[in-house]
Structure formats: structure tokens, C-alpha cells
Write a structure and sequence with these properties.
five-stranded mixed β-sheet; about 25% strand
């Protein structure tokens, strides 16, 4: 397994194939390409194939968040997600705040993540 920190070669199409396999949804390729340019992308690749990804969005000084941690279902429970989290911890310039999918809390706790404050969300204005 090859892990790449700040993977500049990560392209929207391959990222969306991974995201769709983990969280099926209606994703926009153009918006995804712009989003990938604004995040630190840590990837896991097997023989060049994207099998896992963790994205960090940060201001570089005070705040950072993990926008998602994705591992293809066939590659889950093999330590890939744990390694991606470890690399995030080693390479982030700030504390990282993030939410967890229901049922995934144990995975994050096992990997040394502390429970933090309750999260809230606010919708974006229509544009």
C-alpha cells in the first residue's frame, strides 16, 4: 500500500468513484475538483488504484477539519483508515475537529481521537 500526503495527483473523477462506492450520492465533478484543490489530500493507493482518502480543510493556524475519511468497502478493516488518520495527525498544522458517522465512534476512539463538543450545522444560502 502506498500512502501519499498532499496528493496533488488526486483527480475528481477517481475521488468520486471512491466516494460513490462508500457514500452513494449525487456528486458534482466540477465542484469536487475545486474542493480537492482547497484541501490537504492524503491517499492510500494499491498499485496506483485509489482505495482510501482523507481530506483536511484548514486555515493553517487555528482550525482544521477532516471533511471525510473514505476507504473502499473491500479494503476496510485492514488498517488503512487508521493509517490515514495517523498521517493526518502527523501532517496537520492545527487541531482537527470532525464529525463521525453513527456507529463509527469506536473506530475513532480506538485511534486516539477524543470526543469533543457537540456539532451543529447551518445551511448555505441559495446561490
Amino acid at each position: 500500500m502506498e500512502y501519499i500526503v498532499d496528493d496533488k495527483a488526486l483527480d475528481a473523477r477517481e475521488f468520486l468513484a471512491l466516494a460513490g462506492a462508500v457514500w452513494p450520492g449525487d456528486y458534482n465533478e466540477e465542484k469536487t475538483a475545486r474542493a480537492l484543490q482547497r484541501t490537504i489530500n492524503i491517499t492510500a493507493r494499491e498499485q496506483g488504484r485509489l482505495v482510501g482518502s482523507l481530506r483536511i480543510l484548514t486555515d493553517g493556524c487555528y482550525f482544521g477539519t477532516i471533511t471525510e475519511l473514505l476507504v473502499l468497502p473491500a479494503y476496510q478493516r485492514q488498517g488503512i483508515g487508521s493509517r490515514l488518520l495517523s498521517l493526518a495527525r502527523e501532517h496537520t498544522p492545527t487541531l482537527l475537529y470532525f464529525g463521525a458517522q453513527p456507529g463509527a465512534e469506536g473506530f475513532y476512539e480506538k485511534n486516539g481521537c477524543a470526543r469533543g463538543m457537540q456539532a451543529f450545522q447551518i445551511g448555505a444560502a441559495e446561490r
